[in-house]
Amino acid sequence: VNDEERRAIERRAVGLGLAAARLAFVPYRRGDDAYNRARYALVDVALDTMPYTGGDTTAAALDAGVPVVTRVGARHAERLGYSILMHLGLTQTIAHTDDGYVELAVRLATDRAFRDAVRTDVARAMADPAATDPVRYARALEAAYERALAERAAASGS
Question: pTM of the entire structure?
Answer without folding.
Answer: 0.76
